[in-house]
């Protein structure tokens, strides 16, 4: 099934069906996000965030706002 076909099918849903679809899709999307976080964690891609949090905690709290930059082609965010 193509994205266009999915769009057409969703557009044809009644209000109640759309409500049910939204609930289902939100649950589905969260489950996909959880799987990605678990995979990233297992691969060590979140280790730098854990280290930052531990450093902040050891320094007595929050070190202020940080900005995240995405490294294209790597699926990695870096704190700057």
Give the key terms.
elongated, single chain, two-stranded antiparallel sheet
What count of domains describes the coordinates? 2
Which class of secondary structure composition applies to the elements? mainly alpha
Strand order of the largest sheet: 1-2
Please give the radius of gyration in angstroms. 19 Å
Q: What fraction of the residues are assigned to beta strands by DSSP?
A: 5-15%
Give a quick account of the main beta sheet: strands, pairing sense, barrel closure.
2 strands, antiparallel
Number of strands: 2
Q: Note the run of SSEs as H and E.
A: HHHEE
- Number of alpha- plus pi-helical segments: 3
> Which range best describes the helical content: under 10%, 10-25%, 25-40%, 40-55%, 55-70% or over 70%?
55-70%
